[in-house]
Amino acid sequence: PADTVPAAAPAEGAEPPTPAPADDRPKVRLPRFLRQRYVVHVGVKINLTIPFTGKPKPVVSWMKNGQPLDTKRVNIRSTDRDSILFIRSAEREDSGEYEMCVKVDDFEDKATLVLQIVELPGPPASVKIVDTWGFNVALEWTPPTDNGNTDITGYTIQKADKKTGDWFTVLEHYHRLNATISDLIMGNTYTFRVFSENKCGISEESTASKEEAKILKTGIEYKPPEYQEHDYSEAPKFTTALNNRSTTVGYNTKLLCSVRGCPKPKVQWMKNQMIIGDDPKYRQICVQGICSLEIRRPSNFDGGVYSCKAINDHGEATVSCKLEVKLPNLSQ
């Protein structure tokens, strides 16, 4: 019975005259977690095992960024089933694209893995106070020159009163490169410092502002609107448009729309692009943004395109509709 097992093997793949099955060809079995960027912190030991198959024993070779590996930094140990990439203590210069190649005769297979060695970022390159007014200070800073080999994810901003010198966090995980620090105490003098942050954590050092901000007791002067409360002004916008309508001669009809804007828009009604004005045939009302135009006892000459235009200091908007005035159906 033991002889029957190998006898079945040639029968399966008997089609090609030469029994060189594809299973014997070299193949790198790159683990799933290495198929995307492999990120580790500086100082961590890297020990990666990459299995492969192939008969007879494949020849294994490695490259980094297209160049031969520096064996002083990276140790490679290969068996007939796998290859191990070992780095005792990862440094940033170990980052890069590593290519493993397995070869048997004229057949070869390659796989690539990307190592990214990251560490804490440096502090911001500079921090400055750009304005002081009332109980507020405007700060600006620039990104660190060293991001730790990975993206900066935010900043932590701290303030210290000159009297005590104690630091307090006012913003953290903050994404922008400028901030307004408010609710400062009258009569105190403040300095500020900023830390950088990436996926490894917060920079060990910070960068402090060279300037100080003194919150004056008297003569508090508020600067122009860029630092004042939110500006609610907006150009007119119709929130409900005019709908096409059909009416009968002699029956009053009303056109309705609604508009918003700040300051309150001036509303102007038009018929066929001519301003209606104070024509007594029409009654124009606009209350809390709801605008209506009543057409009294229309004749068949009152059909056409009616428009409502809203105007304020920030712009204008217009909506239009068609009004059809039909003769009464006398046959009924």
From TrEMBL:
Keywords: Cell adhesion, Immunoglobulin domain, Muscle protein, Repeat, Thick filament. Residues 26-98, 236-320 form the Ig-like domain. GO terms for cellular component: myosin filament. GO terms for biological process: cell adhesion. Residues 123-218 form the Fibronectin type-III domain. InterPro entries: FN3_dom, FN3_sf, Ig-like_dom, Ig-like_dom_sf, Ig-like_fold, Ig_I-set, Ig_sub, Ig_sub2. It holds the Pfam family I-set. Residues 1-15 have a biased composition (Low complexity). Residues 1-26 are annotated as: Disordered. Binds to myosin; probably involved in interaction with thick myofilaments in the A-band. Belongs to the immunoglobulin superfamily. MyBP family. This is Myosin-binding protein H. It comes from Mola mola.
